Amino acid sequence: MKQNKTTESAATVALDLAARKLIDDASLAAASSLVACVRPLLIVNDRGDPEPHASSVLLAIDDRYFLLSAAHAFDLAGKTTFLIATDTDLIPFEGTVHRTGISPAGTRDRDRLDVAFAELTLALAGRIGAPKFLSVTNLDPNEISGPSRAYLILGYPVTRVRRDRKTKVIRRELMVYSNQGVPSTAYQKLGLEPFVHLAVKFDRKRVIERGVQCIAPKLTGLSGCGVWRFDSLLGEGGGLGGDKLVAILNEHEPSNPKVLVATRVSVYLAAIGMVFPALANSIPKLRRARFNVQEISEIV
């Protein structure tokens, strides 16, 4: 009997590893076509050197170009210079940032939206490259999450963005992570709203870097990265054609280290529509827009 259990256990482990390999391969395949729209954000430190700071996602609506990120990523705006990493260069940020506000005490303890978006100048968008921007057809603002749904997270932790001291070239390694959403009952326990937030299970042992499964690095710098509904895992088409952006990551839930929290793109679209009413006809109808985005401040 003991030998049978050992055999069954070994078979289960082998099956789990095989399934994980399939998921990893699908994650990397999807990431290869989505990564262009995910950009590291850097800041200029006190020594005048670029320093990794956060992640962002590029979005185009009509002939306007936006950068989506987390509000807390821009709390240093006005105090330092922000840089956007392209494939070959670092470009100083040019544009106006709109974000949810902070408390009178100067903290974001009560900011559960943590939304920031910036309209980029046409010159900056041109330098980045228009093909790298997602369109609204690549988003699903009315997505309904569930524990059986898989999600794909792509971003740049600060420990994976480095500057070569000799060549001055920025080298970055994309963090690719996939897992299921949390059960609907977990949202209330976490103080989250399922129509506003998306919570994904986090297992630090299920991260892929350079094609190899590894232990996750520190997650600082992932704020502002994209979360996609991972339809291609089920063979439903992938990349820009199938996997849809559904949220922007904003935090590693401190009260539950096994959960990653993101704000749904419906919140971003509602905020963009409020600031740019001329784009209303180009923004998908938001059937689940149960939130207040009136507290949007503007910084240049």
Total helical elements: 5
- How far apart the termini lie comes to 70 Å
Strand order of the largest sheet: 5-4-1-2-3-7-6-18
Mean pLDDT: 82
The number of distinct β-strands equals 18
Low-pLDDT runs: 10-15
Query: Order of helices and strands, N to C?
Result: HEEEEEEEHEEEEHEEEEHEEHE
Q: Look up the CATH topology.
A: Thrombin, subunit H
Which of globular, elongated, flat, extended, rod-shaped describes the shape?
Answer: globular
Number of individual domains: 1
CATH class: Mainly Beta
Name given to the CATH architecture: Beta Barrel
Portion of residues in beta strands equals: 25-35%
Structural class: alpha+beta
Biggest pleated-sheet summary: 8 strands, antiparallel
User: Helix coverage percent of residues?
Assistant: 10-25%
Radius of gyration: 19 Å
